[in-house]
Amino acid sequence: xxxxxxxxxxxxxxxxxxxxxxxxxxxxxxxxxxxxxxxxxxxxxxxxxxxxxxxxxxxxxxxxxxxxxxxxxxxxxxxxxxxxxxxxxxxxxxxxxxxxxxxxxxxxxxxxxxxxxxxxxxxxxxxxxxxxxxxxxxxxxxxxxxxxxxxxxxxxxxxxxxxxxxxxxxxxxxxxxxxxxxxxxxxxxxxxxxxxxxxxxxxxxxxxxxxxxxxxxxxxxxxxxxxxxxxxxxxxxxxxxxxxxxxxxxxxxxxxxxxxxxxxxxxxxxxxxxxxxxxxxxxxxxxxxxxxxxxxxxxxxxxxxxxxxxxxxxxxxxxxxxxxxxxxxxxxxxxxxx
Length: 338
Description:
This is DUF5723 domain-containing protein. Residues 1-20 form the signal peptide. Keywords: Signal. By secondary structure, this protein is mainly beta. It has one helix spanning 2-28, and strands at residues 29-34, 37-38, 51-54, 57-60, 66-69, 72-75, 82-85, 88-94, 98-101, 104-109, 113-116, 119-125, 128-131, 134-145, 148-159, 162-164, 167-174, 177-180, 182-187, 190-193, 197-205, 210-217, 221-232, 235-249, 254-266, 272-287, 290-301, 315-319, 322-337. Strand 26 and strand 27 (290-301) form a beta hairpin. It is elongated and about 80 Å long.
């Protein structure tokens, strides 16, 4: 009997170790079709595997390695690895890893990287968000979106249409509108910066055209948009322009406003002409709310219209019926701070 016990005891020990190893392996790897049809079944939300692969949908507590889902993956804890899903990743805790989704990523907080085809949402502090349409967070070092970015505190924001933040510490670049309480470097057509500068003014050009311009931005970078009237092809036409500017302070009242603009002229029927221009305007502040500007300009166009520099150009290229030239010009204006 004793000999039999001596033989059975090691067998039980070995079997116990094998079962424990199998259980640990089951926890380390999670394979499934859809919850609870998986190797971890109904206990999946309490387990944190190193690798998870779900054909359609799956859940776990934490992700410490890699988690791949055909459609949707949910973590009830945190993500410290890489999550990839065809449609959506949802992290109910902290996301400090990388989440890649075909449509949407959501997380409560965590300075991780979110990349989604449509939208990234982080209700707390994030790190980097790249969204095909939009991004939203409380804090992000970088937000890159096809349309809209929204955050409380940002390092950098780049959007195809609109950026919105309370504080932007770096660059704020959009195709149309930037909105912030504080942003030193907004680059967009319209920039509504609470502690920035907004001006409306009348600007006249050396070809006897004139426009009403709106300049909005910070005390460094700003956007330009305006419209007016001009004489072209021996008739009065509409003139529109948009561009970007950078201010260089020289003294308390004097500064240099460097601008790059695109101008278009049309009679709305069958005539349209575009002109690109670079200009350096010296701005003299008569009062804190009133500024006079004047300076030279360079035009890239097909003909020289200047009344001051008639017939003069710096460089000219002509081929058959088309031509392109760089011509000098001058601009002056008066601007009122809003």
